[in-house]
């Protein structure tokens, strides 16, 4: 239901988050880990090839490994129910267009596995398909309306074997995710669409080592911290361990009720602990799937995954972690941290990672690994990867089931242009879809008689552009794609000083988290503080009235922000005066109200945040900062 996402001077701005149920997903914990970690050498790889069949290192079996045991790990992360999501992706120095969809992902994985088998003459089942969390949540309607069971069906059809938890698996409580993972029946009060959908086990072996119940310190739902698989070749065998890791940032990424019964243990300590456990069981080759962020750009790689591995190596230099499949930050990454390969395949099924290598049958250790990230190319660009027909059929069926609700027209736009979101931020980090969301929330709160002065939402809560049909129609599906979480909107009381504090908290993490605002306009300027380079100097209401620091105002926020989500602690525990329903329902109702009033919806003008250079008299929108456009997660 919600999510949010920290910062290394160098690359951190590149690692800006994704989003979650009502939040933005960012790179958790960079600073948390780095202070304690002995730095390993980080070597960034730059992927140049679009398919594994064209990859030079994958084309033949090297003589020196002829008696070794070959292994392949195919990984994805942050699918977010993107059954038909397409777009552009940058991998290494290459940009690829029209990538994505799970049907093409399935075909791409099949191509990669067949290439491995052919090259390695590997008849044994030495390929493992793994996922690093956030398979569901913040998803399009053909996943959301079916309680994400359609997504789980596609993962089963693509033969994913091992997975772990992301923050979005907690969106509706871990119990609900466990239900769809196991294929159990929904609750009696579930929507009719969900009840009518076939329920089947995903066949994913979910492993998570660092999520335990507060009540008994045990991992919930019978999940195990790791699983052990056997690989074979030349009459010899070896064991491979797979450890699952959740981000310790979970409390910032979901609602209190979803995580309050659990403790999330330190990632590095947990990896080091279970690496030793596996070692004692004769497992000397270890793979970690961890929902922790990382990014490679301009020849450098940074993120919490790097810091975690630095700490693991400080705790145990002899650890056997050879591969770390990362997630959460929705970025491309391919690097080695010390001896460990780290990969992340962007998000929403637009890419996958392919690691191939060898295990020494005498020692059981990885002898050699090579990792690459590839785009999920369309059929025209990669015809030899056959679209997975079984997966395509699941998606088609899901579309058919949800179509009547998704395609229902709820409003009209003034033009047939999409109203764009986070990927088209202004220099002051405003976007039209985000400001339309908060305008809608303030309008509906006024209609409900709760007397709001302002409305604010976090960048992670606005998940997509608002699609508009050629005739100007706005559909239910288009609105829900923008606000998919169902977070509860609350009208809270805040002093002007608290509001100013909240606005200033946008600038203390390089704007990894920022707000969309309605009912007010403010000016900000340079601040002589490296930890917070900007500060708010002037706040006015829409009518030009100054906002007094001592006056109390009413502000519409979601319950994610009310819990201090995305590190906006100024909102935390402010007095609640009213609730006006879920963000999804309120946004849909706004379009219906505008249609009833015969008022076509327009994209707001992005003029609510004004940057004014220090010492300047005239406000200007020019902002001399490296502003990064966010990718979602």
Can you walk through the features of this model?
- The chain contains 16 helices and 32 strands.
- It has 633 residues and is α/β, with parallel strands linked by helices.
- The chain is globular and about 80 Å long.
- The chain starts with a strand and ends in a 22-residue tail after the last strand.
Oligomer: single chain
Detail the poorly predicted runs.
1-37, 617-633
Count of extended strands? 32
The number of helical elements comes to 16
Fraction in helix: 10-25%
How is the biggest beta sheet arranged? 7 strands, mixed
Short description:
The protein is of the alpha/beta class and 633 residues long. Helix content is 24%, strand content 27%.
């Amino acid at each position: 239901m919600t999510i949010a996402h920290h910062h290394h001077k160098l690359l951190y701005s590149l690692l800006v988050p994704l989003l979650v149920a009502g939040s933005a997903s960012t790179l958790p914990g960079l600073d948390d880990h780095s202070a304690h970690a002995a730095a390993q050498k980080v070597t960034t790889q730059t992927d140049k090839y679009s398919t594994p069949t064209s990859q030079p290192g994958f084309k033949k079996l090297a003589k020196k490994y002829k008696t070794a045991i070959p292994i392949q790990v195919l990984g994805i992360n942050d699918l977010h129910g993107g059954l038909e999501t397409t777009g552009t992706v940058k991998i290494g120095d290459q940009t690829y267009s029209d990538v994505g969809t799970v049907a093409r992902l399935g075909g791409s994985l099949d191509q990669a596995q067949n290439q491995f088998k052919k090259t390695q003459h590997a008849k044994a089942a030495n390929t493992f398909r793994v996922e690093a969390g956030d398979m569901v949540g913040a998803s399009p309607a053909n996943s959301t309306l079916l309680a994400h069971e359609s997504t789980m069906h596609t993962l089963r059809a693509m033969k994913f074997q091992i997975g772990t938890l992301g923050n979005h698996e907690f969106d509706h409580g871990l119990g609900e995710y466990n239900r769809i993972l196991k294929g159990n029946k929904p609750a009696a009060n579930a929507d009719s669409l969900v009840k009518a959908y076939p329920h089947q086990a995903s066949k994913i072996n979910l492993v998570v080592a660092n999520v335990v119940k507060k009540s008994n310190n045990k991992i919930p739902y019978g999940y195990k911290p790791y699983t052990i698989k056997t690989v074979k070749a030349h009459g010899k065998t070896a064991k491979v361990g797979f450890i699952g890791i959740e981000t310790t940032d979970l409390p910032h990424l979901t609602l209190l009720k979803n995580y309050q019964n659990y403790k999330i243990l330190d990632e590095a300590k947990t990896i080091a602990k279970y690496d030793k456990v596996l070692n004692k069981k004769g497992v000397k080759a270890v793979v970690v799937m961890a929902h922790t962020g990382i990014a490679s750009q301009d020849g450098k790689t940074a993120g919490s995954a790097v810091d975690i591995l630095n700490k693991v190596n400080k705790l145990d230099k002899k650890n056997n972690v050879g591969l770390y499949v990362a997630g959460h930050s929705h970025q491309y990454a391919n690097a080695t941290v010390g001896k460990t390969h780290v990969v992340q395949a962007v998000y929403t099924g637009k890419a996958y990672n392919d690691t191939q290598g060898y295990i020494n049958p005498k020692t059981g250790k990885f002898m050699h690994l090579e990792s690459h990230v590839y785009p999920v190319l369309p059929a025209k660009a990669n015809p030899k990867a056959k679209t997975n027909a079984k997966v395509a059929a699941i998606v088609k069926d899901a579309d058919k089931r949800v179509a009547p609700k998704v395609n229902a027209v709820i409003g009209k736009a003034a033009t047939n242009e999409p109203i764009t979101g986070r990927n088209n931020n202004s220099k002051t980090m405003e976007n039209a879809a985000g400001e339309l969301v908060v305008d809608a929330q303030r309008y509906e709160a006024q209609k409900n008689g709760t007397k709001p002065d302002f409305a604010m939402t976090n960048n992670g809560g606005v998940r997509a552009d608002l699609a508009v049909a050629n005739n100007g129609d706005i559909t239910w599906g288009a609105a829900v794609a923008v606000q998919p979480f169902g977070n509860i909107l609350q009208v809270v009381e805040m002093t002007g000083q608290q509001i100013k504090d909240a606005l200033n908290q946008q600038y203390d993490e390089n704007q990894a988290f920022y707000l969309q605002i309605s009912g007010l306009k403010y000016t900000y300027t340079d601040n002589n503080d490296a930890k917070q380079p900007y500060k708010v100097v002037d706040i006015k209401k829409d009518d030009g009235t100054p906002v007094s620091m001592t006056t109390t105002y009413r502000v519409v926020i979601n319950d994610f922000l009310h819990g201090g989500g995305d590190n906006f602690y100024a909102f935390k525990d402010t007095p609640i005066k009213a609730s006006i329903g879920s963000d999804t329902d309120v946004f849909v109702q706004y379009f219906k109200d505008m249609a009833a009033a015969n008022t076509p919806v327009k994209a707001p003008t992005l003029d609510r945040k004004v940057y004014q250079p220090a010492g300047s008299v005239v406000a200007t929108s020019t902002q001399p900062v490296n502003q990064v456009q966010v990718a979602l997660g």
